[in-house]
Design brief:
Layout (H helix, E strand, L loop, with lengths): L4 H17 L3 H7 L5 E6 L6 H4 L7 E6 L9 H13 L4 E7 L3 H7 L7 H4 L1 H9 L1 H4 L5 H22 L1 H8 L5 E8 L4 E4 L7 H7 L7
Parallel strand pairs: 1-2, 1-3, 3-4
Antiparallel strand pairs: 4-5
Helix pairs in contact: 5-7
């Protein structure tokens, strides 16, 4: 069985290049982890979190899953948020989706995909909540991209609604939750303007409905 020697070769080249340009980089990195940001993004291989925001290893704490979902029964995601907020004391949680998301696209298809259909149930629910708006989109690409945006908004709401973030705000910890979306076709981020830095922001942004 092949053991992917090309990837080990790539790793050696990368480590050599980093150390050459930044002496003692790895020694310094190994001594601490002190990021200011938690990134909750999609597993899509075309969305490399650190690279698109220009941050080095150690500067961005990352959690990724299909569809960048924050599900209240997902202990993996909640554990990441809790560790980031309570232990690392990060100041910003960034929920970042991307246009053309495969998970969002799959949630709209009238066919089964297996186990992942259970995971995508939350996106289907978002579609159901916004049917009146979404039915106005006549072409598939526009429909998917708008649902990608609405999905980010819902996940920002879900992050803000966790006991972890609510407790942090109650004790006056500096913490903001942001909703962004990434365009794979141009490499640019868009701010969806659903940033909440406390309970007042949270209430103002989501005052129209408890289920955005």
């Amino acid at each position: 069985m092949k053991k992917l020697p090309e990837l080990f070769a790539n790793n050696r080249d990368w480590a050599y290049s980093v150390e050459k340009n930044h002496p003692d980089f790895f020694k310094t990195l190994a001594k601490q982890q002190n990021p200011e940001y938690l990134w909750i993004g999609c597993s899509d291989s075309r969305v490399p979190a650190n690279e698109i925001v220009g941050l080095a290893p150690g500067e961005l704490f990352v959690h990724r899953n299909v569809g960048n979902l924050v599900v209240h029964g997902d202990m993996n995601c909640l554990s990441v948020i809790q560790y980031a907020v309570d232990v690392l004391k990060i100041r910003h949680i960034i929920v970042c989706g991307h246009y053309g998301c495969g998970g969002v696209t799959a949630s709209l298809e009238k066919k089964t995909h297996g186990l992942i259909d259970n995971w995508l149930r939350d996106i289907k629910d978002i579609y159901s909540c916004h049917q009146d708006e979404l039915k106005k989109y006549k072409d598939r690409i526009s429909l998917v991209n708008r649902l990608c945006e609405l999905n980010v908004v819902r996940q920002v709401y879900n992050v803000c609604h966790t006991t972890i973030v609510q407790d942090a705000w109650a004790r006056k910890q500096e913490l903001a939750v942001h909703g962004w979306i990434y365009g794979i076709e141009d490499g640019l981020l868009r701010d969806l303007k659903v940033c909440a830095a406390g309970k007042e922001d949270y209430a103002r942004i989501f005052k129209k409905t408890s289920r955005p």
